Amino acid sequence: IKKILSNGQFYFSSSSHSSNLSQNTQSRFSPRSKSISSSKSSSSSSSASASSKFSWNSFILIGLLNFRSGLSERSMAEFDDQNFIIHIIQGYISDNYQLKLPIRSNSTSSHSATTPSNNYRDEDEEFERSRLMTLIKVEMSLKSRLASNRAGTRFNTRGIDDDGNVANFVETETLIKIILTNQSPSPNKIISFVQLRGSVPLFFEHNNSNTQTLINLTRDKTATRLSFKKHFEQIFKDHQQVMILNLLNQSRDYERVLSEAFYDQIRSDGNEDDHGQAGIDYKPGGDDQIFFEVDNCHDRQAGQEQPVVLNRQQGVFRTNCLDCLDRTNVIQEMLSRIQLESILLKKFNKYLSKNINAENKNSFNLFFDQLWHYHRALWADNGDVLSKIYAGTGALNTSFTRGGKQTIGGILSNATKSVSRIYNSNFIDKSKQTSIDLLLGNLNRQRPVKVFDPIRSIKNKLMNKRESEYSSSIDIKIWVGTYNLNGSSPPQSSPNNDFDESDKYYLNDHQNDYELLNWLIPFPDFEPDVMALGFQEIVKLSPQQIMITDPEKKKRWEKTIMMKLDQSNDEKKKKNDYIILRSEQLVGTALILIVKSNLISSIRSVEGKTKKTGLRGMTGNKGAVGIRLQIYDTSFCFVTAHFEAGQSNEVYRDEDFETIVNGLEFLKGKRIDDHDNVIWAGDFNYRINRNNFDVRSLIGEGGNGGESKEDNKLLRRMEFGYVFKDYLEGPIRFKPTYKYDIGTDSYDSSEKMRIPAWTDRILFKGKDLTLLKYSRSELKFSDHRPVYGVFSSKVKIIDKLKKDLIRSEVLNDDEVIRVREEFLNGFQAGLFNSSSNNSFFF
């Protein structure tokens, strides 16, 4: 953290007038009036706005902000006057660059003919002032603020989150101050032009291996739509129009996939524009101004200096490429120059038009040459800083931004930076991401700095007492299934599926298609809200497949499953559709999470991760896939796993479990056991502790083959605390699920004659999680039988608006006020008497 904070990319201001650098110039002006808010109210609002997306120390300030919220209005104002709360931003703030443009009168003769001798400097300066009609001073600066809501490094933080925040979201503001001298009063104008950049607002992951670059869209269009809308709604709060400039390269397959999904999402909202692929006017509007202008001249009516808003920026450009670094910076520099050139020409022409002469023309041309030279330098520096934050190196194409052309040196520099980025992504970025999450308070079980607050315990007590007023719960149904497919394909009777010749056991067996639906919907009128399907050996575990994950089989199964669910809905005239929220695959192990479409708006924080355990963690033929999510205010984690095989390898299976529990880590350090509810479903490969003859005899007699706990090796390991501590499993009232002759009801008749076993299991733990049904289905195109579990879970719902209202009422509770006043009186007394008793109350 110390290294990150000392990198020269963080800024703060302690002045009361501009203590919150997380706000741009335009935001500091009241949107409902044409004047700037008072410094006192501005300071107070600055202190309160710790939720600003551009503030990087909001987590550190939580204790102070909570303390501040419990103060009376008078005490709050006194607290703010001391500047205890100062926001820091990360990004780039340039120095002010000053230029002067002298405009001379046509009525005066040339300087060369009338300039006095150099011995008379005072007379010379006086002579020049007499010739000068107007002197225009221009100050230019650039400010970029990087959002903290979805912050991180290049390959660890991509796309959008459930709140509509995108990675590498930057607000860049070009500021121009124009001062007209030799006029009374001396007026000046401040011009601000704001642009945005940010990752493509889709759920995707970017895998940049040594062999290929892959873009993986982790949610479909329907599941993405709500977050996509939230993102643009946030922008629309500040800008009435958004012009999207999409710079993704259409010639690269992986960028084209992302670009097409981006446009598809825009079209689904009915806001498509026909201006081409480089830019889409997401919300078409009129001819409003696209810059912001303030006149700082004296308000003659008020008799004092009062800034007045002349124009307010109504639209904004939102630019993106894949990383929102190099290409984006080049285009934003061009847009900034075009806009400033238009504004300045308009401002200066009224002075030049009355005094057209060669000297003024030369001054004018020289002025703009210098201005654009510095403008390019500012944007090149800006690009380098933002690139170092996100990718660890300076920006590519910096030489083009600085000089307007690409050079051999620039090409070599780009190659060096590209190699450095590869190194950073493989060896540096993961630890840097952890440090960023630690700074922002994103890590699991992280707690803010505690500030002594005398009313905290009372507030918490009163809030807990009134919890029922702002929270409630609903019941949801969850279906979880696990199936070792032995590399088989979906049933033939599902149309549009291709089949391997090895699928001979069921090519003509339509019974499997019927049983597939019975597995997914085990009893009539059953409508689960959430479905988690765990597959093992979804592909044949050949040496080639172990090295590279092939997603095609998973896609075919997804398509078949969704068709069966649609078929069930049609047959029973159900109104609720299902969508695939997230799916993840590790070689042969796959997990597919399906939810009702009407639940999408209540789901957030969806992540998928994998963990290899094959060959002690080197290969993915064995391992686990986990998907986490939050439904309303209750978190869930689903895990499917494939443990070590073999009749007597319990110790290795125990080690697989420990490796997965401790090593399968989601973003921000969250692990499997850090969730309210956890459900495992997989081929755990634990066997029955009996000989083959006894097991088969018991099954033949109508039993399960191992009714006692002593016979069940998994339950024995759980009893000793080796695996699945604190987990539960429903009573097993079905026959062993392994191993069958494919396509039959007969257990293994091969030479090996494997002992039947319950290798396929479902275990769970959680608050208010109840198992309703635990059974198996009779699908016969694998040597396993699928297992399913049906659960009921209570999901907590917190009404945040009502909670905030109740919190405000609690702060005005008589008991809270009494304790607060006693504390403040004692604090002031201790402060004023500290010189005599050497004590300090705080």
TrEMBL record:
Which residues does UniProt assign to the signal peptide?
none
Limits of the SAC domain: 1-392
- Give the top-rank taxon of the lineage listed in the UniProt record for this protein: Eukaryota
Region annotated Disordered, chain positions = 12-50
Q: Which InterPro entries match?
A: Endo/exonu/phosph_ase_sf (IPR036691), IP5 (IPR046985), IPPc (IPR000300), SAC_dom (IPR002013)
Instruction: Please report a single Pfam family linked to this protein.
Output: Syja_N
Q: Is Kinase among the key words of this record?
A: no
Enzyme category, top tier? hydrolase
One GO BP: phosphatidylinositol dephosphorylation
EC number, UniProt record = 3.1.3.36
Q: Name one GO cellular component term.
A: cytoplasm
A GO molecular function term, named singly, is: endonuclease activity
Q: Which family does it belong to?
A: Belongs to the synaptojanin family. In the central section; belongs to the inositol 1,4,5-trisphosphate 5-phosphatase family.
Query: Entry's PANTHER family?
Result: INOSITOL 5-PHOSPHATASE, PHOSPHOINOSITIDE 5-PHOSPHATASE
Q: What is this protein called?
A: phosphoinositide 5-phosphatase
Which source organism does the UniProt entry give? Phakopsora pachyrhizi
